[in-house]
From TrEMBL:
Ranges that cross the membrane: 27-51, 63-81, 93-112, 124-144, 165-186, 198-220
Protein name, entry field: Ferric oxidoreductase domain-containing protein
Keyword annotations of the record: Membrane, Transmembrane, Transmembrane helix
Occurrences of domain Ferric oxidoreductase (ranges): 62-173
Record's bilayer topology term: Multi-pass membrane protein
Domain of life according to the entry: Bacteria
Native source organism of the sequence: Muribaculaceae bacterium Z82
InterPro entries noted in UniProt: Fe3_Rdtase_TM_dom
A Pfam family annotated for this UniProt entry: Ferric_reduct
C-alpha cells in the first residue's frame, strides 16, 4: 500500500472515529503500543503471515506514523477553517501521541537491523540515520509534552514556545525519509522508491508552501489590525478631549 493511500485512509479514520478518539484517547494509545510491540517482536517470534504483512506495510518504513504526523501538520495550516476546527482539531494532540508511539516500533526494528552494519553504511543512509536519531529525540520531547497533564504543568507560554520546534521535526522527518529513498530513486526514478519519494516531496512541499503563506498572512493581518487600532485610538482621542473640555 502506497503512502498516499495510507494517508487517505488515516484521514478518513480520523474523521469517522473523531468522537471515540476524543473521548477515549487511552484506548488508541494502547492499540498503537500493541502494534509497535508486535512489529518489534517480528524480529524474534513468528506471527500469522497476514498480520506480519499488515505490520510490514504500515510500520516497516514508518508509513502509518508519518501519515498521522502529516494529518497533524495540515491541521495546523487549516486550523482556522471551521470544518477542521470542529471535526479534527480536538483530536490533534491524541493523534500526535499515537504517531509517536507507532514510530517507536519502527525505530526499534531499524536500530536492531542497522546497528551491526553502521561502519559499512552508504553515506546517504548514514546521514539518514543520524537525522532520524535527532528527529526521534525531538519527537520524544514533543510527544511527552502533548499530554494535557504535562501541558498544564508547563504553562501556555512555555508549551507554545516548545511546540514551535515541531517545524524542525517535520523538516528532519522529511530529510530522513528522502535520504533513505534517494539512492534507489536515483537508480530507478520510476521505481517504487522513486514514486514514494515524489509522494513525500509533494506532501511535505505543499505543507511548507501553505505554512509559509499562512505565516505571512497572519503577520500582515496582525499588522493591519494594529494599524486599525491605532487609527481608532487617534480618532477617538480628540473626541474624548473635547468632551472633557465641555464638562
Amino acid at each position: 500500500m502506497g503512502f498516499i493511500a495510507v494517508l487517505a485512509c488515516t484521514l478518513a479514520f480520523s474523521l469517522v472515529f473523531k468522537d471515540a478518539i476524543r473521548k477515549a484517547p487511552g484506548a488508541f494509545y494502547c492499540l498503537a503500543l500493541l502494534a509497535s510491540v508486535l512489529y518489534a517482536a517480528t524480529s524474534f517470534v513468528s506471527l500469522p503471515l497476514s498480520l506480519q504483512m499488515l505490520l510490514f506495510q504500515l510500520m516497516q518504513k514508518g508509513t502509518l506514523a508519518t501519515a498521522l504526523f502529516v494529518v497533524v501538520m495540515y491541521m495546523g495550516v487549516f486550523r482556522d477553517v471551521r470544518f477542521v476546527r470542529q471535526r479534527l482539531l480536538p483530536t490533534r494532540a491524541t493523534l500526535s501521541i499515537v504517531a509517536c508511539i507507532l514510530a517507536l516500533g519502527h525505530v526499534a526494528k531499524y536500530a536492531v537491523s542497522f546497528a551491526p552494519a553502521l561502519a559499512s553504511l552508504a553515506p546517504s543512509v548514514a546521514w539518514g540515520l543520524a537525522l532520524g536519531a535527532v528527529a526521534f529525540a525531538l519527537m520524544a520531547i514533543l510527544g511527552v509534552t502533548s499530554f494535557q497533564a504535562v501541558k498544564r504543568r508547563m504553562g501556555t507560554q512555555a508549551w507554545t514556545a516548545l511546540q514551535r520546534w515541531a517545524y524542525l521535526f517535520y523538516a528532519l522527518l522529511f530529510a530522513h525519509i528522502a535520504l533513505f529513498l534517494a539512492p534507489a530513486s536515483i537508480q530507478s526514478p520510476l521505481g517504487a522508491s522513486g514514486e514514494r519519494l515524489i509522494a513525500y516531496t509533494a506532501v511535505f512541499g505543499i505543507y511548507a508552501l501553505l505554512r509559509t503563506g499562512k505565516a505571512i498572512y497572519d503577520l500582515l493581518l496582525g499588522r493591519a489590525r494594529h494599524v486599525r487600532r491605532s487609527q481608532i485610538a487617534a480618532t477617538t482621542e480628540p473626541d474624548d478631549q473635547a468632551s472633557a473640555t465641555a464638562r
